[in-house]
Design goal:
about 250 residues, 5-stranded antiparallel beta sheet, mainly beta
Amino acid sequence: MQGGEPVTSTEIGPKSGERVQLRRQVSACEVVVFEGVPLTHCIADPAKHVISAVLADPQGTPYRSLNTYGAALGRQASVFAFVTNGWMLDAEGQPIGYYVERGERLKELNREEGSGNFYLRPSGVFYGTAGKWETRTAEDFYSNVGDRPQFGTQSGPMLVIGGQLHPEVQDDGQSRAIRNGLGVDAEGKAHFVISEAPISFGQLARYFRNELKTPNALYLDGSVSALWDPVTERLDEGPSIGPLLLVTKKE
């Protein structure tokens, strides 16, 4: 099923001739198969959605799971199109790279050297303000973005850079895992993808480049990849996660 607007249907009401308008929600996410691997593909459309980020509750305690965050919201959950893990974290659930929430920078851009996926240069930043969302390499962001966005997250590595696969990503590497990532297309729509089976970096990168046509795409994480889709009642549980990316429906 393609994600989209709520579908309005009509049925005859209890009184003769009375028609009642019912609104049936349609998920912003759909399941697709790419190169034999099932993927869940969710679309955030700036005409319909707002993207923001959240890490902790009002007392400063990190949520650490989609279930905890959903329970804290109660009935407010209906405002969300979907929610996903945002980026890589340390042992305390704090972001290890650039992080901006509601226009406040809580973590500076990480330009250090290290080991692991995050440090497979270049890393990247997904950020946005007022419905304009972008993904850039960390160095591009550092050199060319002067205004602080409303939200921002750094992760790594980049999967697609300027329409090309990351130079160190093999077409079909031996490393396969549950993975998720995101990219923004030429129309400004943000595409969030999470694999439903183990996938290589190369396969995931090709899906963004070849199918979604996103000139830049960013890897988010592996085993902690998680999605909450209120329409289908999907609520992933697993390893503790850090900051969350919230895709909210516009009023």
